[in-house]
Every structure is written in structure tokens, then in C-alpha cells.
Design a protein that fits this description.
Elements: E1 4-10, H1 19-28, E2 32-39, H2 45-55, E3 60-65, H3 71-83, E4 89-93, H4 101-107, E5 118-122, E6 130-132, H5 135-152, E7 163-167, H6 172-175, H7 186-199, H8 206-209, E8 210-214, E9 217-219, H9 228-245
Parallel strand pairs: 1-2, 1-4, 2-3, 5-8, 6-9
Antiparallel strand pairs: 4-7, 5-7
Helix pairs in contact: 5-9, 7-9
């Protein structure tokens, strides 16, 4: 089983972080390690993470940012740290465990194909799947996903699911070597940067190296930090992403 380091961005999660779920996951999956990124929390999140890390210093790691930078930057800095560890695969997962940990582990099966470099969790309400999402989040999510597909020129169903995996290889590390345009639409920008790498001849076509895996379970957890205003701003950021990455000359 490949070694996997999962980044968990945290901002004011002291009262809803399920510590035991992460501890138990380590027992079930010894190849799995978690890297919690405290994104400048103003509550007791730092203390909660410190106590958890003390229980398993090798598998429950912590990175503290001095000020709140937003989810995108917390994920980016966490992944940079994860890439530097001796691990085959890195990824990220929302702290509220809307995507269960076992689902993320199952997603790694898609990396059995050596051509696949990136795996995206996808919330598709199919028969036999338990996807619990409010109608508001579902329909606004579909509008956002449609716009993201147009911006990217990719037939991607779900860019915003907070469960993703990446092989620890160059050039994927270059995707995370600089801050993102948006703290919330950064998932779209990851794909835009992969398209850049394709244009520069550094990867195979994105349609071949990225796969979406429909999740078996996902639950809409209350307490989302993206409200209506944040959603509008994220939509505007899509235009900025399109402008920045639409031309081949922007390739790194």
C-alpha cells in the first residue's frame, strides 16, 4: 500500500473536529498520516491539535500558520510540507469529514493506473450511493461546476469536493509552488495549472492524468465557512482564473 499524507486545513475547528475519527483511522490504515494546518485559528484549535499530535507524533502532524490566509493557502502550504516527506501520495480532506476518511483511502485505488496522477472525489447522487447535500448547495454547486468546466475547457463534474489526491512527483509539485488567486476557488486553479503544464509539454493531457471518482458517502455538514457572499466572490474569481490561465504564454 502506498504511503499517503493527507493535509487537513483547520480554521476555528476546536468544537467540531472529530479527534477520535482521525486517531482510529491511523489504526485502521497504518500507511496513512495526517498533516493538520492551523490557519491562524482564534479559538482553541491549536491546543486541540497539539493534544492530538502528542498521542501519535509520527502520524498526526501539525503545521501552524501565524495568521489566517484562507483555505487555499492553508492547503497549499500543507501540501508543500507533505511533498517534502517520504510519501508516495499526498492529498487533502476537509476537517469536518464531509467526505469520510475511508472514502479518501478508497480513492487511492484509482492510482493503480500508472498514468493517473490526480484523483478527484466527486459528489454524484447515484443509486447505491449515500450523498446527502442540501438542495441549495446542490444547485448552486452545479452552476459553479458548469462555469468551472467552461473556464477550464474540461468536462469535470465536481471541482469543489474537498477530497483530492496527488502523486508525489515532479511536475505536480510545481502546481503548488506559489499562492492561488482565490482562497475558495483554488481547486479550479489547480486544474488550470495542470493545463498549463500540459501546454508546456511537462505532462500528458489533463483528461488522461486526472480522474474523478464518485464517492459512496458524503454528508453536507453544517458550519460551512463559505456563505452566499463568498460564493459570489468565488464566481468572480473564476473570471480572474480564466483570464490568467487562458493563454499558452502564461505557462511556466
Amino acid at each position: 500500500m502506498s504511503q499517503l499524507v493527507v493535509v487537513v486545513p483547520c480554521f476555528n475547528e476546536a468544537h467540531r473536529l472529530d479527534v477520535e475519527a482521525f486517531v482510529e483511522a491511523r489504526h485502521r490504515h497504518p500507511h496513512l498520516r495526517f498533516l493538520f494546518v492551523d490557519d491562524g485559528s482564534t479559538d482553541a484549535t491549536g491546543a486541540v491539535l497539539a493534544r492530538m499530535a502528542a498521542r501519535d507524533p509520527d502520524g498526526l502532524l501539525c503545521l501552524t500558520l501565524p495568521a489566517n490566509r484562507g483555505k487555499g493557502e492553508a492547503v497549499r502550504q500543507g501540501l508543500e510540507r507533505a511533498f517534502a516527506l517520504e510519501t508516495d501520495v499526498v492529498g487533502y480532506l476537509d476537517a469536518d469529514l464531509a467526505t469520510p476518511i475511508d472514502e479518501l483511502v478508497s480513492m487511492a485505488d484509482a492510482l493503480g493506473d500508472p498514468e493517473v496522477l490526480v484523483v478527484l472525489g466527486s459528489r454524484v447522487a447515484l443509486l447505491g450511493r449515500d450523498i446527502r447535500r442540501s438542495p441549495w448547495r446542490h444547485y448552486t454547486g452545479r452552476v459553479f461546476a458548469t462555469l468551472a468546466s467552461l473556464v477550464l475547457g474540461l468536462r469535470v463534474y465536481d471541482t469543489q469536493c474537498g477530497a483530492k489526491l496527488f502523486r508525489n512527483v515532479e511536475p505536480l509539485r510545481a502546481v503548488f509552488d506559489r499562492p492561488f488567486v482565490s482562497p475558495w476557488a483554488f481547486d479550479v486553479e489547480i486544474l488550470a495549472r495542470l493545463r498549463q503544464l500540459e501546454r508546456a509539454g511537462r505532462t500528458a493531457p489533463v483528461e488522461r492524468i486526472v480522474v474523478e471518482v464518485p464517492l459512496r458517502r458524503w454528508t453536507d455538514v453544517r458550519g460551512s465557512k463559505v456563505g452566499l457572499a463568498g460564493g459570489v466572490v468565488a464566481g468572480l474569481r473564476l473570471l480572474q482564473i480564466w483570464w490568467r490561465y487562458r493563454r499558452p504564454r502564461a505557462s511556466r
